[in-house]
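>> received
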Amino acid sequence: MPGTFITFEGIDGSGKSTQLRLLNNSLRANGWDPLVTREPGGTPVGLRLRAALLDATEEVDPLTELLVFAADRAQHVRRVIRPALESGRLVISDRYADATVAYQGAGRGFSPELIAEIVQLATEGLKPDLTVLFDVGIEESTSRTTRRSTGKSSTNKTGRDRLDIEDAEFHTRVRVAYLEIARAEPDRIKVIDASGPVEHTRERVRDVVVSFLKSRAHS
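>> returned
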């Protein structure tokens, strides 16, 4: 089986990270050996960049944010994703280039032309074979991130990150952008309604991903 690249996308609070963890456990229990990674923070360099980018107390200029995310992705692609794919691995990443289109493009207001150039530079044209987009309403998203930050604050004092604390209009722009990307690329992007119970979403994710992997194996 050739290397396969799958990404999980969605606004903050969509549950994608939880679903990636559950999927990883399910795949491993059924004989797959995925390399699970994330952006930002999929490399040692990326971890340091992630800490700076998501620190809610740090004032980061939007252009700086865009370029640092691109730097993180360039390192991630060259040091982690592409080598794994070339060796035939299944790679699943929590966020990838669609996040830049949604967050820095629609969210921060950078032009589509600039975003496309930055994404091309960082990825060298590497695109996912499958993207699972977790869609949830803004009110539910806000509720989930608030509950999540409350849990964090009681243990490690980190609270909400810098993207969590953006207003509802920002997150609405991001969500709309994600859905527009999905409409433009329906063969690659599968949208899952993530507003329901975790278990219901888990079953849907497993069906989508396992069906895709089986189709790849027999193609």
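>> The chain has one domain: 4-217.
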